[in-house]
Write a structure and sequence with these properties.
The complex is a heterodimer. Chain A is of the alpha+beta class. Chain A is built from 1 helix and 4 strands. Chain A has a single domain, classed as Roll (Ubiquitin-like (UB roll)), CATH 3.10.20. Helices cover 22% and strands 32% of the residues of chain A. The radius of gyration of chain A is 14 Å and the shape is elongated. Chain A starts with 15 loop residues before the first strand and ends with a helix. The relative contact order of chain A is 0.23. By secondary structure, chain B is α/β, with parallel strands linked by helices. In chain B, the strands form 5 sheets. Chain B has a 5-stranded mixed beta sheet with strand order 7-9-8-10-11, sandwiched between helices. Chain B has a 5-stranded mixed beta sheet with strand order 16-20-19-18-17. A 4-stranded parallel beta sheet of chain B has the order 3-2-1-4, sandwiched between helices. Chain B has 35 helices and 21 strands. In chain B, helix 1 packs antiparallel against helix 17 and helix 7 crosses helix 14. Classes of the chains: A alpha+beta, B alpha/beta. The interface between A and B is large, with 38 and 41 residues. Strand 1 of chain A pairs antiparallel with strand 17 of chain B. The complex binds zinc ion. Zinc ion binds next to loops of chain A.
Amino acid sequence: MAAERNYYTIDPEGKLQCVKCGVKLIKGKAKFMYLDNGFPVELPVCPVCGFVYVPEELALGKVLSVEKALEDK
Amino acid sequence: MAQIQERGSTHVYKVNKISKEEMENMVTRCVYEEAPFCNAACPLKLDTRAMLKAAAAGDFKKALQLYEKAATFPLIVSAGCEAPCEQKCRLCECGEGLAIREVEAAVARFGQAQRLGGIFRTKKKKTVAVLGSGLFALFLAGELEKKAYPITVFCEQPDLENFLRCGTEFLDQEAFGLELKRLKGKDISFVFSCSITADFLAEKRVAFDVLCISEAVFARLLPSAAFVPELQYCEEEKLVTGSSAGVMDAAFQAKKAALTVDRLAQNLDPRNMRGQEDPFESRLYTDLSAAKELARIPAQTGGYTKEEAVKEAGRCIQCHCDECMKSCAYLKHYKKYPGLLSREIFNNTQIIMGDHQLNKPMNACTLCGQCTAVCPNGFDMAHVCATARRNMVSTDKMPLAPHEFALMDMIFSNGDAFLARPQPGVEKCKYVFFPGCQAVAVAPETVKAAYLDLCERLEGGVALMLGCCGAICDWAGRYEMQAGTREFLLQEFSKLGDPVIIAGCPTCKKELAESVGGEIIGIWDVLEEIGLPEDAHGLDRPAALHDACGARGDAPTQEAIRDLARKLGVTLVETEYSGDRAPCCGYGGLTAYANPEVAAEITQKALERSDAPFLSYCMACRDRFARQGRESRHILELVYGTDAGAPPDISEKRYNRLNLKKELLSELWHEETAEMKLDYTLEYTDEARQLMDGRMILTDDVIAVLNYFRETGEAILDDETGLMIARKRVGNATFWVKFTQPEPDHYLVHRAYSHRMNVVRRDG
Ligand SMILES: [Zn+2]
């Protein structure tokens, strides 16, 4: 079976915790969706409540450039 | 809260399209690509402008290359040319036209003849013969050699020298020697001392694919045959020929004949695909203000020296039209003249699948109409871009992102911040004051002062309407929203009894005139009528007047503003681009939202016109200039002695609108608005405020995030920074807020950001 492709991977490395659940975020599976397109990614996720964290650098970098590319499709 | 639907799937509606015909019609208005006048007048289509440019730079080699492209024997042509180009030189209109022929002669003498041909040139398969001698035969042989035909000349002369002498008796020894050398260098086979008879002709007909004969031979052997002059072709005899008078005529006929040979060699009808052969009238526009050196450099009997030729060629003003590119920072940014840019934008709207690479340029135009005013043919880039935007919206291909903030702002202006009331104590008002959304956002005190003044000094009552005229959705190409806005405003004006509208902004005046109609005047017209209030006073130093794009083509408004400024005692500095030629401040067409980078360049360009403080009569202009750090005043600030001060950020603009509504409702209509109080303390670092303004994040967005956090407790704690991070999806975007909590119910916002993509968990 082919390895699953992720467009982006961030490992929280134990530096982030979920305030609500009081546990550390782990690297988890998530999906970006925009204008009928979906991209599998790995982001910091709370293993209990499922909170998905999108860091500022990611939002203003990769995410923004993909948004712009899709908007002009 | 209201939301605009992000585009969903792909569906195509054929509406709001620019037709191909309309586009072609528009594209031809742009004369950027039009030939210069000298080139259009030249039967040989010499790229005179480029040749003169090379000569002016002292590059005679390049100049001669260009000249040889048009004239195979440059010294013969320059000596015998009648120079129709010189009469068309635009310098004739303000001094002496350029001595093009003299420069050509110098180029022919001083340039190094280039070696076309050579051993590596592959020849065409079809063979051509030229029978006879004289200028036409010589030039035709030269043209055909350039086209790489295997060519044989059969002449009665005993040698090459005598062949070349035929028709070139006017050449001096030096020139003759040079042209002989040039002819020898050409890949042409010669058969000398021929006796060209009817039998000889018949024999060569069989031996060659295409047969050309000189006019003299044609007249002698076939006295009753006729040929079509446009083709240089005798169809019944299948012969290419001519009947030239003079050097130019022979060279021109040889060009046409060579094209006919080309067509015949490919078994094609010589009538078709000939392009523009005859000289024509160019439609190019030239700004003659650049012309300085107006007298010709006199030529000695031997012609120009190199230096003289360089100097004379340097007088050429290199005719080209860049009126719009000079004035418009948007066109300058994309480095494309409107004819080309429009065609590309038009093509962009035709794409169904694939990248729409022209979305950005299409959305970066301020739709201000300056190009139409400065273009000698009235090219209308605004029409092209506005129509293209509507078309993209109609086909659901227009991204919402570039315009969503502005559109939401409009919804806010005509929703939460909207206000329509008759003057207190007046049932049916004669007037309604419509200051415009930007005026209320940027200078609420000025709006209030203006309204109170109008109420006091105008007979018949003045109602008030705080809202947006619909320019925002018009600019965004959202025609359905525009229709909705029109309906809404029509109803609201109707509730007030359809009073005369007093617009506070030229764009509102224009927009409302087109949408709701009725009688619309500007507040400047009213002030001209009733005079300035007592405490009105001007500036103590000269100010540059910036005309609003909403007032383009509206001379009475432009004049009323100038008159008011005079009455205020303001010394006005008029700039090169003022009145109808004024540039946009960068706000128009939503450029400031869709493309802040281009908008900044546009603002910069507008400010470069003067070092003085800018006086404007549109609050968006006032705001743009002030944001750029220039002292900037709206004329109503002078009229009412108010000072809107430092430009507000995007959240303050909203607050100003809500607050003015609340204040006026309370003071004038005694209606109290329920206070929307937060049950916690919310503060921002300066950095957070700055980030939010640049990233188009409102305090309302931050409040939505914190409310959600307080409700659910959902947040992240970043151990490294000690910041809490919460988020909430609002409309089409997710907003993230980084904050600290100094004490319970007290939040300090450090940073904020957003993205439009939706992020969800995924299993497996
Ligand atoms: Zn959790």
